[in-house]
Amino acid sequence: MLEVDDSVVRQTLETNFFGALHLIQAAVPLMKKHRYGRIVNVSSGLGTYQAFDVLPELKGQSGAYRLSKALLNYLTRLAAQEVDGREIKINAVCPGSVRTDMGGEDAPLSVEEGADTAVWLALIGADGPNGGFFRYRMKAEW
Ligand SMILES: NC(=O)c1ccc[n+]([C@@H]2O[C@H](COP(=O)([O-])OP(=O)(O)OC[C@H]3O[C@@H](n4cnc5c(N)ncnc54)[C@H](OP(=O)(O)O)[C@@H]3O)[C@@H](O)[C@H]2O)c1
After folding, report:
1. In angstroms, what is the span from residue 97 Cα to ligand 1's centroid?
2. What DSSP string describes the chain?
3. Which of its termini does the chain have fewer beta carbons within 10 Å around, N or C?
């Protein structure tokens, strides 16, 4: 992080943070009108405080990405606080390590497995969570 190029940080925040922020800002008024909505922010465990303890080997790596996901997590909490949590639900998910272009071919989870928690959160009922962070359909530490 101490040596990362400014342009990398800005571009990463544009996509991973501002992209989500602008989409939430555009979608929530419509959701309020219809008194129903589900937003699932696809985040990462790499954006959590836990990652510092669990993955110390990441020191000096992926700083812009981790920062962008930490902001996305915080955005999830802020936005969730501003909606009626029974009608509209805004949660974040860590898909796990998934076999995509990003995760690579050796990642343990298929795309279907990686999408499972996000789909579950997109379909939760009125009693489901709002403002949470989930992995494998379970609450995860921020
Ligand atoms: N794969 C994992 O193990 C893993 C782990 C934790 C979290 N995640 C999260 O899961 C999400 C999906 O990741 P993935 O594994 O599917 O990654 P991926 O295979 O690299 O796909 C990323 C997708 O994002 C699109 N994209 C990138 N920059 C964009 C921009 N500025 N505007 C619009 N679209 C843009 C890419 O579009 P193009 O194809 O057009 O470039 C691509 O379709 C990401 O948020 C990632 O952080 C993934």
Report:
1. 12
2. --S--HHHHHHHHIIIIIHHHHHHHHHHHHHHHHT-EEEEEE--GGGSTHHHHH-GGGTTSSHHHHHHHHHHHHHHHHHHHTS-TTTEEEEEE---SBSSTTT-TT-SB-HHHHHHHHHHHHT--TTS-SS-EEETTEE---
3. N
Question: Which residue among the candidates 36, 49, 65, 74 is catalytic per the annotation?
Answer: 65
Two structure tokens written together for 29: 């008024």
The residues, any chain, with a CB within 8 Å of residue 106's CB and separated by 6 or more, are: 99
2 compared with 115, residue with greater pLDDT:
115
C-alpha span between 15 and 37 (Å, rounded): 22
Could you give all domains of the chain from N- to C-terminal order, each with its CATH number?
6-139 (3.40.50.720)
In this structure, the residue with its CA closest to atom 41 of ligand 1 is 101
Kindly tell me the sign of the dihedral angle through the C-alpha atoms of 8, 10, 13, 14: negative
Mark whether 74 is an active-site residue: no
Centroid of ligand 1 to alpha carbon of 98 (angstroms): 11
Q: Which range (4-8, 84-88, 114-118, 125-129) has the least confidence?
A: 84-88
